[in-house]
Amino acid sequence: MSNCKVLYQIKTLEKLVLREIIKENTAFGQDTCIRPTPTQMQIIEYILEHLDEDIYQKDLESVLKLRRATVSGVLITMEKNRLIERVIDSKDTRSKKIILNQKTREIFSRNLAKMKEIEQNMLSGISEEDLRVFLSVIDKMKENVEKNSTI
Question: Alpha-carbon Rg of the chain, whole angstroms?
Fold first, then answer.
């Protein structure tokens, strides 16, 4: 089997899932400004899971395995759309903590419910064993990409 076909299948699945998320947000009447992207949802989820910690851009780069410029661009957009606020850290004025507002928490809750529904639909008819194998293969693929990455 060709690797290009695997990449194509991964991209196709991603597009199908994104369409479902966008379709649901449109049904809610959300405008483009407040419709979090999947990456923004990951950032929001990470911050919510670590409310007792100060979160900085470098933390998100590490956890999401994204480049500095990518995370910076996403955070700028999120700040512009008032999903987050970046405040100067009192301990280190060179760093800015990332803080969520209440509106973002509400949007996240609504979107998280839809994402769970989409995931349940995707997994319909898939056995626990098949899912375990799939996740194992995905983990191995990520490991291979990271190991062989020149960047």
Answer: 18
DSSP-assigned beta bridge partners for residue 85: 99
With beta carbons less than 8 A apart as the criterion, state whether 75 and 84 touch. Answer: yes
Q: How confident is the model at residue 24 (pLDDT cuts 50, 70, 90)?
A: low
CB 76 within 8 A of CB 39: no
3-class DSSP state for residue 67?
A: coil
DSSP H helical segments within the chain, as ranges? Answer: 3-27, 38-49, 57-64, 68-80, 102-123, 128-148
Under a CB-based contact definition with an 8 Å cutoff, are residues 39 and 47 in contact? no
Instruction: Express each pLDDT in 49-105 by its tens digit.
Output: 998 899 999 999 999 989 999 999 999 999 998 889 999 988 888 889 999 988 888
Cβ contacts of 66 within 8 Å, gap of 6 or more: 39, 60, 74
